[in-house]
Amino acid sequence: MNEQPPVKKPRGCFFYGCISAIALLLLMLGGLFLGYLSFRKMLINYTDTKPLPLPVVHPRPQRHLTVPRVAQIPRRSKRGLYTYRRKWSATSVRRRAFSLTRRL
To answer: Residue 82: which residues within 8 A CB-CB, separation 6 or more?
Structure first.
């Protein structure tokens, strides 16, 4: 006569966690699909089926014929400064050798 309705079992965290995880997964898959579609549309709109012809560049003949002399090519000195090579004469070689032997 006074029957009570059956008590419903409450749903816990696991149920709501799974529902929200499935919803997030579906949203992510939808976002990836829309991203793929927009990328494909952009690829079709901004690319061409044949390549563009590149202009032909003809170098000036003077640049290939002029080669700097070895004495004009800068080299790195011990101090880190760029200096030019010096042509040593026989006299300057003798002077330098004599000054080096005097230091010993």
So the answer is: 74, 75, 76
Among residues 63, 61, 60, 86, the alpha carbon closest in space to that of 73 is found at: 86
Cβ neighbours for 84, distance < 8 A, ≥ 6 positions apart: 71, 72, 73, 74, 75
**46, 60, 94, 96 from 89: Cα distances, Å:** 67, 38, 9, 11
The whole-angstrom distance between residue 73's C-alpha and the CA centroid of its chain comes to 32
pLDDT of the residue at 29: 98
pTM of the entire structure?
0.43
Q: What does DSSP assign to residue 52?
A: P
* SS3 (DSSP) at 86: coil
